[in-house]
Amino acid sequence: MPLRQPNSLGSWGAKTMKLLFICTHNRCRSILAEAITNHFGEGRIIAKSAGTSPVGDVHPLSLKYLAEADIPTEDLSSQSWDEHQHWQADVVITVCDSAAGEACPVWLDQCLKVHWGLADPSRLEDSEDAIAEALTKTIAIMQWRIEALLTNDLDSMGHQELAATFNALGIQ
Questions:
Q1: Which entry of 17, 20, 23, 118 is annotated as an active-site residue?
Q2: Which residue out of 3, 63, 104, 124 is catalytically annotated?
Q3: CB 118 within 8 A of CB 141
Q4: Active-site residue 28, yes or no?
Q5: Which CATH class is domain 17-142+151-156?
Q6: Can you tell me the distance from the alpha carbon of 27 to that of 32, in angstroms, rounded to the nearest whole number?
Q7: Residue 93 dihedral angles phi and psi, to the nearest 5°
C-alpha cells in the first residue's frame, strides 16, 4: 500500500507531516533530530527516528544535552526502522553518511527521501567539553533546520517544491 502522497491538487493538505530520521545506530544524531522536531514542530511536523543497525540504547550525552536545552527526552529509544513500517512517514531523512547510501526497505519506496548530513558527536574521543560543544552545535543545526522548514507553507507545496525545500535545508 503506498504511503501518503500529495492530494489531487499536488499539495500535502492540512495534515501533520511525518518525518522519519534514519542513522545507522539510532543512538545520537537521529535521536537528536526526533526530539528537536517533536519539540519545535508546532504540531505541523512530527518525527520518529530509527537505525539501519540500531544499538539498542540512546547515547547518554545526547539525553543530557537535550535536557539541558529543555527538550523532552522521555520517549526516546534506539530502534530499527522496521518498527515504523506502519507509521507511514511522508519524508525520510538520513542524517549520517553511512545510512545515506543504504537501500531502504520497500515500504519506504513511496516516501520523499533526503539527506541532512551531520557530524557524529558520539564518535568523538576528545574531552567532554569538546563532545559537549559538538552536541550543542548539532542540536543548534537541527533546531535551525526545523524552524526554517516551518517558515514555509508546507500544506501548499507540491512534491517537487517540498523536495527542493528539504534538500536546500540539508546543505545549509
A1: 23
A2: 104
A3: yes
A4: no
A5: alpha beta
A6: 9
A7: -120, 115
| Alpha carbons 59 and 49: distance in angstroms, whole number | 14
Q: Which of 45, 66, 96, 112 is catalytic?
A: 96
Q: How many CB atoms lie within 10 A of CB 97?
A: 14
- What are the domain boundaries of the chain? 17-142+151-156
Residue 38: all three cell numbers together: 517533536
Distances (CA, A) of 10 to 1, 87, 161, 165: 19, 22, 10, 15
111 is catalytic: no
Q: Is 104 helix (H, G, I), strand (E, B) or coil?
A: coil
pLDDT digits (tens, 9 = 90+) for 14-63: 589 999 999 988 999 999 999 999 999 999 999 999 998 899 899 999 99
Contact 89, 3 (CB under 8 A): yes
